[in-house]
Specification:
The chain is an alpha+beta fold. Helices cover 22% and strands 28% of the residues. The longest helix has 13 residues, at 18-30. The mean pLDDT is 81. InterPro entries: PilP.
Length: 171
């Protein structure tokens, strides 16, 4: 009996103008649209061309003379850095970012204390690497750290250049 009452209530909720709405929507769908039709532009057909440079060197690769020269210089030059060794902590900074803050003699060895841009002080000795240009510490004195950097130029290949860090009294 409850089902009959519920069905009667739902039937009473039906809108008598629902059929009129469906008729109006059907008429709207049948009416012509005011929007212009889509015009597809004419695309001319061009004759197929053969790419004549497919056997040539890619323009995104260096010429073979440069490629072979670089690989030869990377491996054969006496100034070429060892690319296989693990990087040391101070190699992630340029020499201009590093500051020599002190030196000391410990166990017969001269050590240097170098501050990074973050304020961390790293102790290094002769033979450690510093800077972004494969710089290697060659000597440490009381006021100075001598460094031998290795730079690559297209014209000359790997070249060694001297650099240094000094204790700056003004800082």
């Amino acid at each position: 009996m409850g089902w009959v009452v519920a069905f009667g209530l739902l039937a009473g909720c039906a809108d008598p103008s629902l059929s009129q709405l469906e008729t109006t929507l059907a008429e709207i769908r049948q009416m012509p649209s005011n929007e212009p039709g889509i015009v597809v532009p004419y695309v001319p057909l061009y004759p197929t061309q053969r790419y004549r440079h497919s056997e040539a060197r890619s323009p995104f690769s260096p010429p073979e003379s440069v490629q072979s020269g670089v690989s030869g210089l990377l491996a054969g030059s006496e100034n070429a850095p060892d690319q296989q060794r693990p990087a040391e902590p101070l190699e992630q900074f340029s020499l201009q970012e590093l500051q020599l803050v002190g030196t000391l003699r410990m166990g017969g060895r001269q050590l240097a204390m170098i501050a990074t841009p973050e304020g961390e002080v790293v102790t290094v000795r002769e033979g450690n690497y510093v800077g972004g240009d494969y710089g290697r510490i060659t000597a440490i004195s009381e006021q100075r750290v001598d460094i031998r950097e290795r730079i690559y130029t297209q014209q000359s290949g790997w070249q060694a250049r001297p650099a240094s860090l000094t204790i700056d009294d003004e800082r």
